[in-house]
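I hope you will forgive my troubling you with a question about protein structure. You will find the record immediately after this paragraph.
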Amino acid sequence: MNFSITLPWPTLIALYFIVWWITLYATLPIGVKNAHEAGQEVEKGNDTGAPVSPNLGFKAILTSVLAIPLTLVMAMVITNID
């Protein structure tokens, strides 16, 4: 069986964009603690469930790395469905 990706580049980029956002939403809860869980006092005016340190930079990099193989798998599935 020959697995190849024959999607046009704009379609592949659009697929990566969609997979990237879905992956981001899946990685957002990783390691999140609110002030109560972290043993800190909630500042006046802040929501009690707001994360203390969301680590968005790390999660953006993790999402970008994870989205590449997921996009390739999705592209292979799309192009090789009979």
About this structure: Residues 9-26+51-82 form one domain. The radius of gyration is 18 Å. The CA atoms of residues 15 and 74 lie 8 Å apart. The chain has a mean pLDDT of 91.
